[in-house]
Amino acid sequence: MPRQFAYYPGCVAEFSSKELNATTKALAPLLDIELLPMPQATCCGAGDVAEAKPNLYLTLNVRILSEAEAMGVDILTICNVCTLNLRRANKMVKDDPRVLEAVNEELVKAGARPYQGTIEVTHLLWFLATEEGLSLLEARGPRGLNGLKVAPYYGCQLLRPSSVMGFEDPDRPQSLERLITALGGEVSDYEGKSRCCGFPIILAREEVALKESHVALSGARDAGAQVMVTPCPLCHLAMDAYQRKTEQLMGEEYAMPVLHLPQLIGLALGLPTKTMEFKRHLVPVDEVLSIVGA
Amino acid sequence: MPATTFRIFRYQPDSGETESYHQDFQLEHGEKTTLLDAILRIQNEQDGTVAVRYSCRSAICGSCACKANGKTVLACMTQVEHVKTDSGQEIVQVDPIGNFTPIKDLVVDMTPFWEKFKAVKPFLIPDGPAPEKERLVPKAAMEKIANESKCILCAACYSECNSLAADPEFVGPAAFAWGYRFAADERDGQRKNRAKLYSGEHGVWDCTRCMFCNERCPKGVDPRDAIEKLGSIAFQEKVTSDKGARHAKAFLISLRTGGKLNEILIAPYTDPLGAPFNAPLALRMAQKGKLPKSPLTHKVKDRDQVKKLIKNVKETI
Questions:
Q1: Which residue from A minimizes the CA distance to B213?
Q2: In a domain, B317, yes or no
Q3: Separation CA A157–CA A100 (nearest Å)
Q4: Reported pTM
């Protein structure tokens, strides 16, 4: 019996970063996971709706949690920002029954299902970095990365605030390192791995954002990484799509291919490269593919 | 009794030392000795020139923020043994807080911090003439600003702020926590003006949401949450012309029209004037299939519920 999750890919993975969604879906059966669709689920608001209209943010996110509750399964995400927004809303209503009651009143008034507070939200990285997840990988004989030097890039919102996220020490995260090693890769460690990619302000404050992503890109390059891997499609856009702009602004070259986490796992497990849609990346990944023999 | 090597940042330009370096000191100390007590003992017993700023030793004055093995802490409320277990390292390296210029060893120049603090007008500005008696405030109204009122201005939140590292002019977390503390105070009469003041170029919309401020604040102020609430006040006061506010508006439009983010809309809506400059990247992204083909937002099931929520849910900040 596969492990079932209510699958919340988030907006970016469904549209501009479709390769992430496609790879996750292709990977799931190999890891004995069944991803159940959530047809009612809206955008989590990405922190922007929380900023503009905090009560609306909370209500919309609890509506998403409630859809999963009706399905009777926990939520699996593949985006840092979705994970934080859903977990934060979940914590707010679980911590205070009065808040839950007020939110449910609005949900019922709008014809939506009230939430009982029984759902957990986890990210694919967290699930796979547990003993259960690692044993699922082990069962697939996943040593296929062939010593590829991989820079783990966490970004911010899967680690902080730890009062909401809480999976691992935000100052010494090890989940990506554990996976990279289990997949036969070599970890390129560097200081910028949990610094911000700048994406939340990339459209409003581009220069500030690019200077932020420079810290991680230059750190990964200087650590000798052949590729960077990230659990977040927004970090991926900042690091991959905007990389040339950052190079132009900073007057430096990174030439750093960036993989979504499921793509790195897919490479190790031998998922067909076509399925993982590497052609959608702006920084070419050809060298990575040749190192792992894909 | 544990013994620890303290690797302390040294920099004494007034004594002719133009380069900084780290100096090791060995110290035997108690199980519960704080980092500040350890530094002061080193100063008293081994090297009187070690400079550190401190006052109350009780996590009230906010003077002794520094980095211990890379993590910003208040030295007086952090035990040496905790630093070691927390970082997994036997040596304790002590550095001045980040994003500031060191003046002498662990002491930094706080001038930019105080300038930014002053710039948010961190005091009550009530409307109208002063009342004859004191202004009474209901408990619930004060609870709204209770968290932000705990700020002790230690600048731990500035030390690892990623926006500040990229933009030294960013007003920053503590100053905005104070800004919110007064903008949301029901005795204050400057809510709209404050919303305008805080929305400028290096203002609330500069925050990149790295969450380091919430993580590092020793008093649980959660400055990022205060910045978020200032965004909400800006919306209520209709101060929404900043690109950051327009970015948030694009999310609201997307939710209203379908339920998921409309990625075709968000860039030109956020920055209509910047669109031509972004054209080369947009073109490259389009060539890679990174831009959705349809300009319409994806429609979720039962979106009438979403529309009703958008219409009904009232904001209470």
A1: A161
A2: no
A3: 24
A4: 0.96
